[in-house]
Amino acid sequence: MNAHDLLWGMTSGQLPSDAPAWVLEAINAGHPVVVRRAIAEPGQVAVGVRGRLREQRFATVMPLAAVQRRVVPEALRGVTSSRDLPALRALDLLRPVLAQEAWGITGSAGFELASGVQALHEHSDLDLILRTHERLERGDAEDLLAILDTAPCAVDLQLQTPFGAVALREWAGGSRRVLLKTVSGAHLVVDPWQAVA
Amino acid sequence: METLSFEFPAGQPPKGRALVGCVGSGDLEVLLEPGSPGKLTIQVQTSVNGAEQRWQHLFERIFQEHTPPALKIDIHDFGATPGVVRLRLEQGFEEIGHD
Q: Could you tell me which residue ranges the Phosphoribosyl-dephospho-CoA transferase MdcG C-terminal domain spans (chain A) (predicted)?
């Protein structure tokens, strides 16, 4: 299991008793949950439940044994939609650009393409993940960002390194230290392709 | 979208300005500029509604450790966790200190 994987099979009985009503609603409707970048107890996986509103995100854990189906971001590259929205048009534009790379779709676009539940709207960003086992040079990051910035909506691409995730936009920028999101939290690092001390 | 304003006691204004962070989910952009002596003002524009208390408490915890310089801070938040907010502010203070 990796951050951004979508999981089906969670039941409302597995939610903590203080879960808000909209969380129960989403789970009872059969919506998938999203794997979070966090450490969980053995036999559990840290997940997030999405609601309709932007501030409706609920962090919880799911028993691994309950997982019935798992969809990874890469599996959504070929999924198309009949809806006409900037984020989906951006996706059409970027598919050939990223064709040779290990990339996938996350965020609301990934959620919608995987589940059929409408999560995108006119002003949604497109969230992507690019798995980079090898270091992506900053100049190459700048070039890629320049292409993403021609898309019809904002594109938030996260570079997944062996140690965590860093935003392409930040890595392509001038900041010496960048924010690396890891299972143990966020860290400011000089090189995202080096283990955090 | 919600805009929140905060004010805290501070020391002297620094000379430089700094821009740290990144536009993107789970992150924030922080612009730090010299403010009026003795005053730290913060404006937060956030996509997460109803979180004023959380910001207030987070800032209080950060600034009680040491008195901050007099700054005018502009924050664009895209749903960052408190840990990320803390790191970005530390990064901003550090960059301002280097000028």
A: 80-191
Question: Which chain A residues are Cβ-neighbours of B26 within 8 angstroms?
Answer: 181
CB contact under 8 A, B22 and A154: no
State the Cα angle at B77 between B67 and A62, rounded to 5°.
Answer: 110
Q: Which residues contact A169 (CB under 8 A, 6 or more apart)?
A: A145, A156, A157, B22, B23, B24
Chain A positions touching B27 (Cβ under 8 A) are: 167, 170, 179
| CA A122 to each of CA A16, A83, A142, A153: distance values in angstroms, whole numbers, following the listed order | 33, 11, 27, 9
Could you tell me how far CA A11 lies from the centroid of its own chain? 22
What's the mean pLDDT in A181-189?
Answer: 92
Neighbour tally for A109: CB within 10 Å: 26
Query: What are the boundaries of each domain within chain B?
Result: 2-97
SS3 per-residue string spanning A149-189: CCCCCCEEEEEEECCEEEEHHHHCCCCCCEEEEECCEEEEE
* Domain B2-97 is found in CATH 3.30.2310: no
Chain B residues within an 8 Å CB radius of A185? 83
The residue written with tokens 């990796």 in the block is A2
* Neighbouring-strand partners of residue A48: A34, A59
Q: ipTM more than 0.90? A: no
In percent, the amount of chain B with pLDDT more than 70 equals 98
> Which residue type sits at B51?
A
The whole model's pTM is what?
0.89
Domain limits, chain A = 6-71, 73-189
Chain B residue with minimum CA distance to A180:
B84
- Which of B19, B20, B22 would you mutate first to test chain A, the one with the most A CBs within 10 A? B22
Q: Tell me how close the Cα of B94 comes to any Cα of chain A, in angstroms.
A: 11
